[in-house]
């Protein structure tokens, strides 16, 4: 119970929602997603063209290859794996308590029909800056969590000032944009 009230106090410092969260959930709500969703089917086939993989391994690999811009959910990956298996494009077998998937010949043919891997489209559309921003935001959030967990009240107040100043300065960048 003590931990819950501490968490509530930490969230209060960020307007009640906590860092990085808004009233509509992670990312601030409607319209917050700027990168397009990837083609899960094509991505799975492209990954399996390289080597056999487990479902969760594919999710991690796609997140890694897009610099964190795209992490398909298990709710989209696993049904797609089942569909591809039903279509005879991939096969799955139990290995070490997990299901290891590999391409069938028909799946290899379909994978080769795509010129560029789906993750390349996502990173190109988002631009290099988006990848760097995602990494920087992750490091910033870690620093905020550490200050909120281990900092004194004065340090927490100073950290909040820094975050609020950064927000104002970012909006200032947009205000100066002449495009």
From TrEMBL:
This is PadR family transcriptional regulator. Residues 15-30 have a biased composition (Gly residues). It comes from the Bacteria. Pfam families: PadR. PANTHER family: TRANSCRIPTION REGULATOR, PADR-LIKE FAMILY, TRANSCRIPTIONAL REGULATOR YQJI. Gene3D superfamilies: Winged helix-like DNA-binding domain superfamily/Winged helix DNA-binding domain. InterPro entries: ArsR-like_HTH, Tscrpt_reg_PadR_N, WH-like_DNA-bd_sf, WH_DNA-bd_sf. CDD domains: HTH_ARSR. Residues 1-36 are annotated as: Disordered. Residues 44-112 form the Transcription regulator PadR N-terminal domain.
